[in-house]
Amino acid sequence: xxxxxxxxxxxxxxxxxxxxxxxxxxxxxxxxxxxxxxxxxxxxxxxxxxxxxxxxxxxxxxxxxxxxxxxxxxxxxxxxxxxxxxxxxxxxxxxxxxxxxxxxxxxxxxxxxxxxxxxxxxxxxxxxxxxxxxxxxxxxxxxxxxxxxxxxxxxxxxxxxxxxxxxxxxxxxxxxxxxxxxxxxxxxxxxxxxxxxxxxxxxxxxxxxxxxxxxxxxxxxxxxxxxxxxxxxxxxxxxxxxxxxxxxxxxxxxxxxxxxxxxxxxxxxxxxxxxxxxxxxxxxxxxxxxxxxxxxxxxxxxxxxxxxxxxxxxxxxxxxxxxxxxxxxxxxxxxxxxxxxxxxxxxxxxxxxxxxxxxxxxxxxxxxxxxxxxxxxxxxxxxxxxxxxxxxxxxxxxxxxxxxxxxxxxxxxxxxxxxxxxxxxxxxxx
Length: 430
Hints:
By secondary structure, this protein is an all-alpha fold. It contains 17 helices and no strands. This is HAAAP family serine/threonine permease. It is a multi-pass membrane protein.
């Protein structure tokens, strides 16, 4: 009798958790929101507005469904394991075998590592511009400046992972608050330049098509928070058990509505206060929108606040991605060494990884390739493979995920993913 009562009580507790909303759910909703709104947001207005009004409107329409359906698919994939509490790499190995597990580990590394390179370039450009335009100081040579900045970041990494994570979590919401304040501050500067030429005179519909095509990888990159989805799904599975998927979807939709509303307001405010020609100039200068705004508007608030916020945001994102990239690189080196019957000492591995990261990020920051070009051809497409394609593939191959088949949202996610990946071929053709 007591056992029956206990089972009933447990069932009621789960049902209550499903129907209600806990403090922990709020924490996760804000955490997902904070993870997605980062330095990638600073490059979205440039690609969104440079093609004119139509690509901007298309982005506004697609932003919420593509972000929500893709991250929901990945959450469902993690929850599909027969072993509750398994992370995404374990789920991949369970469903697709150890060989595919290695492929996914490699893809994860290449999804994070190029972003680290993007931020090394972005930080160097932002500091260089800040010194030249706001501080009126001649910056040192690019190679010296890039080396100094990256060595400084590596020194921060040495302070410890937990300290970095705490610092990033503290910085997220002040960063979002400043973005919103800047967006509001720009409202009086709104103009109708983007409405002057809805169809470009050069290229016409083709130019619009190309702009929409290349905006998708940047959107995938800017709205991505897939690295935290595995931890999110596992945590909610422990709390809600068989009701985890429904509660995860509720948390995701609320988080994504906040995220899309915030980011789109910032994007529209930036685009409406400039012209497509200004945004093309920002793209050519290879700087974030905040750096361009700081140099464009001769007002002390924007001139000093915008680049400082950009430096903090890029630093935060660099450190976060460094942790993921170094972990992924360590995993790859260990697997290669193991396949050759060798074992690497942890200290030697950490030193080798740190040197690899230092040399490659410094070299790329010195060369100064196009930031948006790297996002379009590397970051966005590889993230799309993991976030958009893999979960949809699993729906058709994994028995525990067949319950999600037949939905139109699956087709939508697959199409967006394939278009985003196809940007790689555009860059190769160029």
